[in-house]
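To whoever is on call:

I kicked off a structure prediction for a single chain this morning and the downstream step that reads the tokens threw a length-mismatch warning. I double-checked the sequence; it's 183 residues and nothing unusual in it as far as I can see. Pasting both halves so you can look.
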Amino acid sequence: MLRILALFIMIMILNAEPLDREEYIEQESVIEPLEFIINYKFKLENDIPYGEKYGISIPINTLNLAWHHNRVNSCQIDVAEKYVNIKHFSHYTQAESRAYSKKQYQYLLYNLLQEYKSDVLECLMLHESRIDDINLSINSESRTNTLVTLKAYVLVGFDSGVLNLDLYETLTRSSGENSHSRR
């Protein structure tokens, strides 16, 4: 009988959740700026929209935009959210907590960039856009092909209902090589 009781107690201990593994949610009104790369393409053929592609990516390695690149424009977008909910776990170490919070910040900012796509695109177009327009006439028949492309390196932050976008110069491969050439 004691063996069965001891076995039952061991099973209960192994299946029990530790008491210090509590989660709690904090409401934060400020998210420090994080780096994103935004790409946009829109195509017209003979004045008919053919398609668009809106892509947001998070660089695997930090680009250090604020230190190594020139800021060329900034925009503020009013959003409905005045604060964001961030989940924390009491059993995380300080490093784990920072990493998990950063992942949540990236996710929340990514979702805001998706939700307010038209405002983000307006900001990007004020900064830079490249329009390739090809007109072709064959046997009195005119064909047009227009392609709008945008690429932007952006620091995105959040402050009490305002999405802050800082746009940085887009470096081409050749300009990057020139800046690191030997003398």
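Update from on-call: the warning came from a stale cache, not from the record. Cleared it. Sanity check on the structure: Residues 174-183 have pLDDT under 50 and may be disordered.
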